[in-house]
Amino acid sequence: MNKIYRVIWSYAKNAYVVVSELASKKRQSKSTNRTVVIKRSMVGIIILLLVANPGYPKIQTAAENTIKVSDSGKENGVTADEAKATNNGSIAIGGGADANGINEETYRATIAIGWYAKALLGGVSMGARADAGDESVALGFWTKAELEKSVALGARAEAKAGSSIVVGHKAIVNNIGGIAIGESSIVSGDNSISIGRLAESSGEKSLSIGANAKAKDIGAIAIGRNAEASSNSSISIGNETKSGRLGVSIGFNSESAENSVALGPNAKATSVNSTAIGISSVATSAGATALGKSASAQGENSVAIGHSSIANEANTVSFGKSDSERRLVNILKGRNDTDAVNVSQLKGVTQALGGGAEVKEDGSIKAPSYEVGGQKADNVGEALTNIDNNLKGVVEGGLKFAGDDADVKGGVKLGEVVNLKGGAEGKLTDKNIGVVADVDDAGVLKSLDVKLAEKIDLGETGSVTTGQTVVNNDGVKVGDKVVLNDQGLTLGNGAPSIMKNGINAGNKKITGVANGADDNDAVNMAQLKERDEKITNINTGKAGLVKLEGDKIVINNELAKDAPTFDFSNGGVARTLAGVTAGKVDTDAVNVSQLKGVTQALGGGAEVKEDGSIKAPSYEVGGQKADNVGEALTNIDNNLKGVVEGGLKFAGDDADVKGGVKLGEVVNLKGGAEGKLTDKNIGVVADVDDTGVLKSLDVKLAEKIDLGETGSVTTGQTVVNNDGVKVGDKVVLNDQGLTLGNGAPSITKNGINAGNKKITGVANGADDNDAVNMAQLKERDEKITNINTGKAGLVKLEGDKIVINNELAKDAPTFDFSNGEGTRTLAGVTAGKVDTDAVNVSQLKGVTDALGGGAEVNADGSIKAPSYEVGGQKADNVGEALTNIDNNLK
């Protein structure tokens, strides 16, 4: 029969001895060394082995303070070697068990329990073929912890590297500092952790938690069943998740590409630099962002914000989809061309239109109401038509005429013939009478003056008679004696005469002699005096010469001081005055470069032609051409209604325009999140190209997300919150450690629990080869915790950008950009194309330019009203101006 033994301390031998269970023992003193304490902890195990052993074990001591228990029988027909306990304080129990190692001074106990179990200095091996290295622990059949400071628990578990921990059947750690917990779990990267059946961490400093979880590259994290983090620093949390290089996937079946983020069940960020946040959200193009349940960002650099929003065009932001648009509220007045325009700015446009035009409460535009010529119109075009009709009345009113007596003698309709008669009879002559228009400074015609030509030609048979003087083809005759004909002038007998042959002065002075011109002309006394005077002026510096005074050229100085005209012509031929500096004051000459500035300001191809004349501009407004500014402005007025009605159009990542809104209507931006929201986790980035044109507003998740103490992330059966991580009902990771349920392995602050066998004393790792504890792992996890999957609904400030999210606001009709009571500028807004797109300031400037009259967008975003002057009356809106025109036409 079996013999019952017990092990007691022998003071005589200074060692444990096996005695009858009836023998008494004496308690040891408190000074007993730690080797004795270790041996006491093994008493129960030894007794159980002895009781269970049907043979007669051989128990003896070898070195000082050692125990070895050998079985002299056979196991499966194989004779076992004798147990060896060669160190001081060592224990070897089992056939072939070997507790070996040098232990002369350190007194580190070595324990080997089991058939051919082996343990080196300070090591503990328990189980058949278990093998423990220096200061290592191997528990289980064929379990190996061969290198120093390693732990292996479970059948065929292998800790192949130093400072590693292996828990589970066939679990393996190949690299230093690794931790593998779970059946067939594998660690192949330095300082990496695998927890769960078939979990694998093959990258350095990687982490995998969950059945078949894979962390395949440096710093990768995979948490959840079949979770896979395949690239450098990628993170996958949740069942069936996948992530690319530097990507983050959180939520069941979520997937992220390189540098991308997918948060929420079935969230997909499948292209580089993309973001998908929310249940079933999808971002499929580079730089795309989808925020909200089922949001879809399909266009490159597009943003879809809100439940089921679609952005399928590149560089667009969508806050909804067709028939599901949202309002965009609390927008600061746009100042730059690409800023969004708010309703207050649109009100500036309606005020400029006048006629009671306004933005109604529902955002639609109340049409203006003009009254022109007693007729009402609700738009500028119709008002202009009424003006045109009134012009017909003007035509019918025609013209009225008055002569020098100033009395109106009658009128005629425009287009009818008016006969002007002079009363002459007989043959008439041409080119002897002219009509001159007398216009005042304001350009108003005062009269049409009929004037006689300076040079009258009555032809060969014509004559002019006044009293006794007759002028005809023969010459001039005054009375009977004075005759001027083709021979000359005779004044009668003895009187002076001027004939072809010469001048007969009749011994009298020749007076009234004209200035001589040619060499043979007579010179009169005045010419002679003039020459004398010029000689004098040359001597005194008053001659009509070009003279240099300082840096100025003085022309025709003293003598020409009262001359109003400086004639550069050579006879009737004009000359070019070259080298003229650009004039600065009102009386300076203007050069062609300044004139070119005017033509450039006119635009429309206006220019100074090579011959110096001005090429008129050519404008095309609303499909109509105009060759002057006034006509172009008229065309702009006619097209103004289209601008107002066109409003704003919005598109999202799907790139299709889903709807529009008239100018003044409100677009709501919704995130779709419900419950309590958090701040500073989402930002909006303006994507502007090299020319300054806004491509999109990218809504991005913050690099560091903080959901606060009450926030959480749920993906399938996995919950991450302030308490820690919980998977199902049993697996819990918190500030105390990891527990896998009743009876399952656990790692806590108190140590590693592997079937009532504690692994204690794992301090915080400091060097690369140190093991890490759960507190350190928790520090890493805190960067990705506290996110409620698919329902983040956060607003986070990143620098000067606001990133906005998603699920909780999916049904909200309004997107509020305000900060309390203050508004913000929505910058980088591309010009809207469809009705629901936001309108930027450049589009609003197009409206103010069309209004003319100095209307403009002020620096603070408000609208400067136009100023028109019609018929001497000023107006600050189109309606008032049209009223003035109408009044003037009456």
UniProtKB/TrEMBL annotation:
Residues 1-42 form the ESPR domain. Residues 133-157, 176-197, 202-227, 256-278, 297-320 form the Trimeric autotransporter adhesin YadA-like head domain. Pfam families: ESPR, YadA_head, YadA_stalk. Residues 327-363, 509-544, 579-612, 758-793, 828-862 form the Trimeric autotransporter adhesin YadA-like stalk domain. CDD domains: LbR_YadA-like. Gene3D superfamilies: 1.20.5.170, 2.20.70.140, 2.60.40.4050, 6.10.250.2040, Serralysin-like metalloprotease, C-terminal. InterPro entries: Adhesin_Head_dom, Coiled_stalk_dom, ESPR, Serralysin-like_metalloprot_C. GO terms for cellular component: outer membrane. This is ESPR domain-containing protein. It comes from Ignatzschineria indica.
